[in-house]
Structure formats: C-alpha cells, structure tokens
Amino acid sequence: MSSRKTLKLSHLPDDLSVYVELYDAVKNAAFLQEQLLEGNMAFEYAFIDASVILSSTHILAAVFRAANDWLNGRLRSKNVHSEIVFCLSMNNNIAESFRRFGISPATTALYAIKVSRTSSISAATVGQHLSDSIEGTSLPFQEAEISKFTDITKVRKIYKLAGPGKSSDKASGNARDGRREEHEGASLVTEDGRKRKIEKRELEKMVLGLMALRGAT
After folding, report:
1. What is the pLDDT of residues 173-182, one digit of tens each?
2. What is the C-alpha radius of gyration for the chain, rounded to an integer number of angstroms?
3. Euclidean distance between CA atoms 81 and 115, whole angstroms
4. Are strands 110-116 and 46-49 parallel, antiparallel or unpaired?
5. From CA 19, how far away is CA 34, in angstroms rounded?
6. What are the DSSP calls for 107-138, one per residue?
7. How far is residue 67's CA from residue 16's CA, in Å, rounded to a whole number?
8. pLDDT (tens digit per residue) in 50-63
9. Alpha-carbon span 199 to 191, nearest angstrom
10. Are 72 and 132 in contact, with CB atoms under 8 Å apart?
11. C-alpha 97, offset from chain centre
C-alpha cells in the first residue's frame, strides 16, 4: 500500500499539488538516476537522498521556493523538480547540489516529489507510477520516519556547520563507582534524546537560514 502524501502549500495556487513519497530499502537507485540523466519525461520527479533531509519543514521549504520560482519564471535549472534539489543548496552551484542532495547509485532511502497543476496528474497516477518504478518500501511522510534516515554529521558537513560543543559525560564521570541504578540509566537515555531533539531543531534553523540566503542572491 502506498504511503504518499498530497500537500497544498500556503501562498501558492489552489490548483498546485505536491505529491511526496518516502521510500526505504531502494534497490534500483542507479536505474532511477539514469532516467533523470537521460531526460525521461515519465520520470520528472525530484528524487532526493533521505540521509540529507532533517525534517518535513526542510524539504518543503525547498519545494515552496522551487514552485514559487517556477510560477514566476525564475527557474535556474531545467524544471521545477530539478529546482527543488537545487533549492536545498546553500550556494549557486547547480551541479554540486545534485551531487549532494540528489539520488545516486548508492542511495537506499529517498524522497520522490512531484509538483503539478495538471488535472491528468493525481495522487493515484503518481502513486501507481512510483509503485511500478521504484523497487523499495513506501513509508509515511512523517517526522518519526524522516528522522530515521537523517545523517546529522553529513548534513553538518554539507552546510559547513560545526557540531555542538562537547559536554561532560556524566556516565564516564561516575564510572568509578562501578554501579548505576537502572532508573538513572534510563534518565540518561531520556536526557540524551532530549538533547538530540534540541540539537536537530537548532540545526534546522541554521540550514533554513542558509537556504534562504542562497535564494536571496
């Protein structure tokens, strides 16, 4: 069963639809990339490597920018779908944006995005074509699933953002005791998860800012 999501973005025409689907365990990424390189119109999608996406906000910010530029005749790349990949970038190097954010033969998890104002293109037709074309498992486009594939280190490297400062390791500091209550260990796990969420949220803010600055140039 498909888990595609159909979105209507604020401040864009009502007849413009965005179809997003997340795939894992993809086995034919090389084939999909080849269709893009050959300009196969049937594969006019934005295929984005899932490891470089922080959240739905991250990816939809690029979709909005690309769609807006498309509607206003300001595309810098071939079409609105290649523009989505480009809009994830922090600089104006289009080829580099494809290498960093686009699909590659090594991709195993990806986002497939379709933007359309054509009535003949619907969630059903997009979903059917993707199901027929992608050898992988469709997953819900939800934050819990998105987070599973994010490579924070890779994202920081791409956007040239330093990691957070090293904090003291309480577990190591107390190792001398040789003992730790189970509830203390659970508390540390919970605290670590909270810190990771905060780190990711702050990273997202910086990434969106860099994307916006690129768009303003």
Report:
1. 444 454 455 5
2. 20
3. 7
4. antiparallel
5. 22
6. --SEEEEEEE--TT--HHHHHHHHHHH--SEE
7. 9
8. 999 999 999 999 99
9. 12
10. no
11. 13
